[in-house]
Amino acid sequence: MHFTTTEENYIKAIYHLQQETGNVSTNELAAELNTKPASITDMLKKLTVKKLLRYERYKGVRLSNEGEKLALAIVRKHRLWEYFLVNTLSFGWDEVHEVAEELEHISSKKLVEQLDLFLGYPKFDPHGDPIPDSQGRMAVQQQINLIDLAPDIPAEVCSVGSQSTELLEILKHKQLGIGTKLEVKRKFSFDHSIEIKMKSLPAITISQQLAQSLFVKKISND
To answer: Fewest C-beta in 10 Å: which of 13, 62, 83, 153?
Structure first.
């Protein structure tokens, strides 16, 4: 069955929202997609008829098994294209989201499988988000929030909490990216900012907000 770009955008938005909240309300979806609630209701009816959603009165919607399969296929395409743009075409990680938003709607299964093969079956995209495989399975990363990392423990940045341009811009400015190795040196109780040290760079202090946007995995010190 073929789906329109708009239908796919709805499915993907519901998928991301239900990770956080379980059932998704019309108002949550309207805010996420910047669309009027009346239009949302019409589309939800269409998607329910296509058996992509389960609707519970007063409780909102959830993806059906079919809806979840479709959502994972779209997320897979999006994250593979992001990986391709950064690692093959040298795009910045803060430039790829919008381009991938367009490319994720290409329907050719063969293209996606060949892209995955060409890239060597990557497990994570440039922002550290897991890439679903052709069966919709995703690798799980043992990660903790940077704010929770104890001092003097070697760690590596493995994902970011959001892909907002503002966040990616400040990370670029502070030379922080996926794979950056660092240690926490001090935690300041006054404003919960932390001092971090990256190899061969002077120690820097980052805000609590920025630290909470970064996830790290512990590594052995070589």
So the answer is: 153
